[in-house]
Amino acid sequence: MLERAQSVCIREGGMNTGFIGVGGMGGMLVRALLRAGALAPKDVYAANRSQAKLDALVAHFPGIHATSNSQLAAHCGLIFLCVGPTDIAVVLAQIDPELSSRQLLVTTSAAAPLKALEDRVPCRVAMLIPSITQEIGSGIALLMHGSRVTPEDRNLLAELLGRISQPIVIRESLARPAIGLASGGPALIAYLLQSMADEAVRSNPELSPELADKLVRETAIATMRLIAAANMTREEIIGRVAAPGGMTALAIEILSRYVPQAWQAVFRETAAREMKSRQSLAL
Description:
With 283 residues, the chain is α/β, with parallel strands linked by helices. It has 2 domains: 2-174, Rossmann fold; 185-280, ProC C-terminal domain-like fold. The chain has helices at residues 2-8, 25-35, 51-60, 69-75, 85-95, 114-120, 151-162, 175-182, 185-203, 209-228, 234-241, 247-280, and strands at 10-11, 14-15, 17-20, 44-47, 65-66, 78-81, 104-107, 124-129, 140-145, 166-169. It has an 8-stranded mixed beta sheet with strand order 5-4-3-6-7-8-9-10, with helices on both faces. The longest helix has 34 residues, at 247-280.
């Protein structure tokens, strides 16, 4: 199978790229890359445990090769492993016979340390943590490189992911806090906005949930535009809105009593859980 994998990695100038797992983040990633024109459907192989999700992807992007995990590994030089921590060992066992040192394996799970993956497979290994914001071709994609990754691999991933995101390369030791900010960030921000609207309604029964949602949504969008388009810092926004002695200044004072402690708990407890998960993961 080694000769087969080597012979089909490059075809008409494009590397065959495989995605094992096309639900959730894996599906988002392949859709975003195809929509951006970063990959051509004819160069994409996809495998998934759920046939329905695979069929839906192929129907939306005709030309994709829907296949098995092992066949995907036999045909692709670049493989994105987009499965959950509990499925990694099973998938690796299925694709083992097709893997070689000529391939680049990119995991989207932070649960498996790069060193453990390098000890497990002959491929060059990298880690990618995408964000849901790549659905609109924006946001940060975090990259971590294993010790065998080549300069060509680095350029390939930077160019590919640069079509749908701003790729940032970090040390693996920074993975947990960086993931919390970049990949988990959209959910955390959305939760805070939802909580803000919900509590406003609870405190003021005459305020409808629909109006509260609209106020928070439009204000959040406009605030991000101030940061992005007007280059205003977060400190400038707070200073200009929270006039001394005013109600917003009082609100900031109240939040300052509780919010920092909550974020400390978020980062501390998620780091502890991830460390425990990494230590118990068997590949």
